[in-house]
Amino acid sequence: MKKSIVGILIFILLFSTVVGVLTSANSSTKFLDNENSNIGYSHNIIGEFFTYTTCGPCKYAHQALKNLYKGGWHPFYYISMVYDVNKWAKDRHDELGIVASPTLAWDGGFKKDQGASSVISAMNKYNTSIIACGNRNVKDIDLSLDVEWLGAVNPDPEDGKTDVIIEKILDWDVTAMNIDVTVDNNEASQYNGHLHVYVTEVNSTYWDDTGDDPYTFAFLDYAWNEDITVSSSSTWSDFVEWDGAEHNNGKGEYYDEIMQNNAMIIAAVFDEDNNNYTDETIGVYAGVDADPKLFDIYFGNTTPPPKVKSNTSDRDYDPGELEFDTTYYWKIDVWDNEGKKIPGDIWNFTTRGNDPPNTPSNPYPMNNSIDAPINVNLSWTGGDPDWDSVTYDVYFDDSYPPLLVSSNQTSTTYDPTPMGSELEFNKWYYWKIVAWDEYGLVSYGPDWNFRTQINAPPDPPSDPFPENNAKDVPINVTIRWNGTDPNQGDQLKYDVYFDDAFPPWKRTGNQTENWWKAPYDLTLYKTYYWQIVVWDSGELSTIGPIWQFETGVQYPPTAPIIEGPTNGRAGEEYEYTFIATDQNGDDVRYYVDWGDGDNKWFDEYYKEGEVVTLNHTWNKKGTYTIRAKAKDKYNNIGPYGELLVTHPKNKVTYNPSLNNMKQILYKSSLIERLMFFIQQLIKYSINHYSINYI
């Protein structure tokens, strides 16, 4: 008789396995209520399925669970704990000491099934473990759940919010539920337990297994995770509002798109007096055929507000531009697919007030100032107390009242001479600013005025080139000088006097350039005289001194002598010196080509014969030629100097010489040789590869 019963049980198990596999292939899963299958079991079993999104064999375990649950042969629930993308699942993974994936922890770890080589083998293991859990002795605990999906939540603007912008778009979520839990203790003694209430998605919209199937009953977050104590023959109960828009996976991903008919709440009580094994489990769907939802929108500045839109699926509403400093009321009624309405609460918010822009202030030039430059730029301080965008109208003229010269500009500066002209010297100017905010409120600035500077003659010309009394000046020289003026913005012009006789003759006048080149070649070994007269825009002038120079043969600098290390390692910095001389004693500057694509003229001039030190790093091993040349202030360029350098290695690595290696090999036993090669391999690996620790 026993053999017959065993045979029947084996047949039932095999038959259920085959049926589960055949009915699950490539089909969407329809999950059934397994409460009616509790015949002969001490309680409803819970399986916590620990997996991660890139786990290969986890897809077999997942399909096996779907098949068993779909078949409805056992009173069990399971939860997919995808712990690589959910911190709370990872915490539970660590709490149960899970060491491999996939792992099914049954009844809080009473049974742990690791690995899955196929769907059928996984189903067989899980069948055995579920039956073993169902035969456990458990405490006489009754567990009940009630879930009520709420209507519109998380209003934006928040209820009672003030200072709301008048362009505000209203929006809301439909992501909240009330969860009620009751635990009845039918035992003769106090019950000490731990309550887990898991919020899950029936078909995950966030995470798939490696077979591209959405994880089923994917754990999102807890509604409860706490110890409970229930006196003998007493009841413990509590409720909570759980809102997906306020919960996340511990990594910043919020559940603000959770749907009612895709949510299931699973509660389990773990017995603290019995190794934290489960005494009872229950699961409740949040809704069936209740999504998608439609909304009736009520909005206005009276309460209750009037309906403004019906049966919309949008979860936002644009009321248009609102009034300042006004309180508005709104509510959302939610309708599900079954025609059930969830009336909304009436919310309110108040828009911000609006003040005019700040009165323009802090003028530059200061009001009544008497020393403004003739190229002055006007500036002021503006802004808005409500941080609105502000534009400005600028009024400016040399008579009162000033004229409008710029409208709707956003800048707080204005150039009264945009064409490069200048204001007049020693003259009064008048100006004011009018500020507008983006809603048409205006602030008028006060009337301001300033007087420009009195004109002063230019400064004497300076910095002659060639220097006064210079020798050996090339016969094709271009003379240069600097001109400045004490009045900021005053434009200068120059008269140039040049000759080989004293005093020099005038060659050109009213030129703006601060250089001049004779239209003919000069004569060698002859003295030339030159002078600059500078004029400002007010026709004031300053006569410069008479300078002179003597022409002669101009020799280029010598090839630089380059000194420094000729061998080294790539990636390290090395120092080199450069020395060039000049027969005429002129200062020189250097051009350096390091041979690796890095080359340039250095701007600084050095005394001829001065030691110049420069540093360089070659990033790749190789042989390079450093080439350098020098140029004097008359643009005479000398020949190249060169230095050959070699960088054989790009980093230091362990590499014993061949002779040392031969000596080690010749003098060592076979075991010693083997150990030697292992040491070299380890050292080579350390020098050439990085090791990642997971």
In this structure, how is the largest beta sheet organized?
A: 6 strands, mixed
Query: Could you name the CATH topology of the domain at 1-137?
Result: Glutaredoxin
Q: Class by helix and strand content? A: mainly beta
Q: What oligomeric state is this?
A: single chain
Helix count, DSSP H or I runs of 4 or more residues: 6
Q: Specify the helix fraction band.
A: 10-25%
Q: Report the CATH C-level class of the domain at 1-137.
A: Alpha Beta
- Strand runs, count: 46
- Beta-strand portion reads 35-45%
Radius of gyration: 45 Å
End-to-end Cα distance, whole Å, is 55 Å
Q: Superfamily at the CATH H level of the domain at 1-137?
A: Glutaredoxin
* Named CATH architecture of the domain at 1-137: 3-Layer(aba) Sandwich
Q: List segments where confidence is low: pLDDT < 50 over at least 5 consecutive residues.
A: 1-38, 650-668, 684-694
- Mean pLDDT score, rounded? 89
Architecture overview:
The chain has 694 residues and is mainly beta. It has six helices and 46 strands. Among the domains are: 1-137, 3-Layer(aba) Sandwich (Glutaredoxin), CATH 3.40.30.10; 361-452, Immunoglobulin-like, CATH 2.60.40.10; 462-551, Immunoglobulin-like, CATH 2.60.40; 561-649, Immunoglobulins (Immunoglobulin-like), CATH 2.60.40; 658-688, no CATH class. Helix 1 crosses helix 2 and helix 1 crosses helix 4 (119-134). The longest helix is centred in the N-terminal third of the chain and has 23 residues, at 2-24. The protein is elongated and about 130 Å long.
Highlighted features:
single chain, 694 residues, mainly beta, Glutaredoxin, Immunoglobulin-like, 6-stranded mixed beta sheet, 6 helices, 41% strand, elongated, disordered N terminus
